[in-house]
Amino acid sequence: MPLAALRRATRETVSGLPREFWWLWTSTLVNRLGAFVATFMALYLTLDRGYSASYAGLVAALHGLGGVISSLGAGVMTDRLGRRPTLLMAQASTAVSVAVLGFMHHPAAIAAVAFLVGAASNASRPAVQAMMADIVRPEDRVRAFSLNYWAINLGFAVSSMAAGFIAEVSYLSGFLIEAGMTMVCAVVVFLRVPESRPERTAADKAAEEVGLGTVLRDGRFMSVVGLSFLVALVFQQGAVGLPVAMGEAGFSPADYGLAIAVNGVLIVALQIPVTRFIERRDAGRILVVSSLLAGYGFGLTAFAGSVGVFALTVCVWTLGEMLNAPTQTGLVVRLSPAQGRGRYQGMYTMSWSVAALVAPLMSGFVIDRLGAEWLWGLCAVVGTAAGIGYGVLMRRLPAEAPAAADVTAVDTEPEVRTV
Q1: Where are the alpha helices (DSSP H) in 279-337?
Q2: I need a labelling partner for 188 at 20 to 30 A (CA). Which of 92, 129, 131, 274 fits?
Q3: What CATH number does the domain containing 27 carry?
């Protein structure tokens, strides 16, 4: 692509989004630049502490259980207290708990604090997603979610490579760096991001009826939640199954860091053109293709025997991730009422949290009892099932209605920005 065309494509992708979005985007980027615990917890426990893959899976599962519990609670808080207070409390709690985790040595203490880290870190997700849906125009949401996803992976690409080498010197430094960067995120939100919850009026009394029961009775939305769980179960293996399998095969933390960093690097390089490709295309087909790419991308890991081949398999499932993440998030917003976005986003976030709970237990058990090859074959089966499910669901979904009355509490006049 000529340089001028690339510049024009980039300008069109990032223009027209409100100032508040870019400050939230900056907070996301800073947070991911300091990411360490979720990526290297399995290696920390198995290589540095000498625990088994099953124990590492148990700790990761407790981390996921914390997220399961906090997702719904944070969703309710997002609707009742507001997006901003919920986000600030979640980020401050994450910073403190991550720092404490670095000083834990007893197995029970590590497990308990990992649970608290999972609860605190996942509590921010419903607030961030609801806030983005509030401040961005409906026609720009897939693009906005793609850009936020791009920021997550820009930070992840940098932090994965750096943290892999930091881990070989001092795991504690990684914990403290993540705690500090998360606190910086809280400061950015406190100083620059206003509350975005839609103002309640007399005409919005029906919003009080949007409770968790309403979400659970929404069959179409809960189908999306179920399919999201299957896809998340596969993607979680990049953080739990893959590092354990590589460690048992004799690869170092730096080897895993280099392989998994391909995920972030590809997303940084390709997310903007991929966003332009998917923005006006059928969401159902994109979700089907992304599920298959995820499943079979991890399935190919069974044939990997070098860092280079591991990196190639990461390329395959990363493409599925790039297609899935913004499309699925946009679908969730499409099915969520404005006054109940926190609860709906909380339930959606819970699907990923439950996957974070189940995936490490599944991977630890399968690797210990059957071997890593069986885990990768199971990923292919789950990805296929998710693809079939999305194909059936999206055929029954009605066309999206225009959201002319989508009123928000912040100014969303377009502002041209570049990154």
Answers
A1: 283-299, 307-334
A2: 274
A3: 1.20.1250.20
